[in-house]
Amino acid sequence: MGYKVVFTDHSLYGFSDVGSIHMNKVLQFTLADVTQAICVSHTSKENTVLRSGLPPEKVYVIPNAVDTAMFKPALERLSTDEVVIVVISRLVYRKGADLLVEVIPEVCRLYPNVRFIVGGDGPKRVRLEEMREKHSLQDRVDMLGAVPHAKVQSVLISGHIFLNSSLTEAFCIALLEAASCGLLTVSTRVGGVPEAWLKICSFCLLILYFSVVLPDDMIVLAEPDPADMVRAIEKAIYKLPQIDPQAMHLRMKNLYSWHDVAKRTEIVYDRALICSSQNLLERLSRYLSCGAWAGKIFFLVMIFDFLLWSLLRLWQPDVDIEVVPDFDPVYHERGDFSGDIGDKCSQ
């Protein structure tokens, strides 16, 4: 149809198993004609470029953000007489549920004053419940099951430390939500979590470097290994007296804002709009470059789709389709939506 397309990728996929190989080929076909792409981390960008064959200059990195108005710390600081470690995650292999089965009993053995709250559901929940029964930790490991997103904040503020045990992670927005609630975070050093990033101050041209998704005093990293994760949790417990939840929340408001993400995303869409349009033959040639045999199949599929679209245009001409009115920011800011939309469209 010739529309400019911007694709956003939030996932990481491998290259070795059969499922990933087929999915990567589908992605290469799907993205052969996109104008721009957005990834949430540099690791995610590298993964997308390798999987799809997109030119790196077409792929932009825009991190996720957090709604700090929703994720606020508790009004009163929790006592550290009992340390509560919160886990909120899908209980699947990719999220490191098997690591939790080994880490939780060891931490409970070393620290009698530590208690765990585990929120989430999945096929690995059975293993966690078996671990709790085996080590008699029913009074120290609370299994909440699936937690609705609206109730995540109330669970987070009941703890001191947030634990992320993922084996792969493009960005992990859960870390931002926990930090915004004033929790010290412990995470595995995987995917986009440990990558370096920088923030440029446009006023004084200073470049401030941070080593991870969160500054060093907000997060403790560990290898996806039970022993190293236990050591990271020990380090986090010792750091707890230095943590000020309210100060951490204010810092998160400055570091990650959805308004900033929206502005950067708008720039990518504006750049996509000014990209030169290519004719059908130039666009079809991209599909031929997707592989010796796959490229020819993709080419034939797109020819069929184009012919089908042309027939649909004959059956339903463009002139018979109502055109969406241009967005009027003044009208939107005024909030006057009481009038007839048809009247507004006809103006």
Short description:
The chain has 13 helices and 11 strands. It has 347 residues and is an alpha/beta fold.
User: Strands of the biggest beta sheet: in what spatial order?
Assistant: 6-5-4-7-8-11
Radius of gyration: 25 Å
What structural class do you assign from the helix and strand content? alpha/beta
Q: Mind telling me which CATH architecture of the largest domain this is?
A: 3-Layer(aba) Sandwich
Question: What is the molecular shape?
Answer: elongated
Average pLDDT rating = 84
What's the CATH H-level superfamily name of the largest domain?
Glycogen Phosphorylase B
Residue share in helix:
40-55%
**Secondary structure: number of strands:** 11
Distance, first to last CA = 28 Å
Return the CATH topology of the largest domain. Answer: Rossmann fold
Q: Name the CATH class of the largest domain.
A: Alpha Beta
Number of domains: 2
With helices defined by DSSP (H or I, 4 residues minimum), what is the helix count?
Answer: 13
Could you walk me through the main structural features you see in this protein, from its secondary elements to its overall organization?
The chain is α/β, with parallel strands linked by helices and 347 residues long. It has two domains: 6-64 and 261-292, no CATH class; 83-256, 3-Layer(aba) Sandwich (Rossmann fold), CATH 3.40.50. The chain is 42% helix and 14% strand. The chain has helices at residues 18-30, 42-52, 97-110, 125-134, 152-156, 173-180, 226-239, 245-255, 258-274, 280-288, 294-315, 329-334, 341-346, and strands at 6-9, 36-39, 59-61, 83-88, 114-119, 141-145, 161-164, 184-188, 197-200, 207-210, 219-222. α3 packs parallel to α4 (125-134), α3 (97-110) packs across α7 (226-239) and α10 runs antiparallel to α11 (294-315). The two termini are 28 Å apart. Keywords: Glycosyltransferase, Transferase.
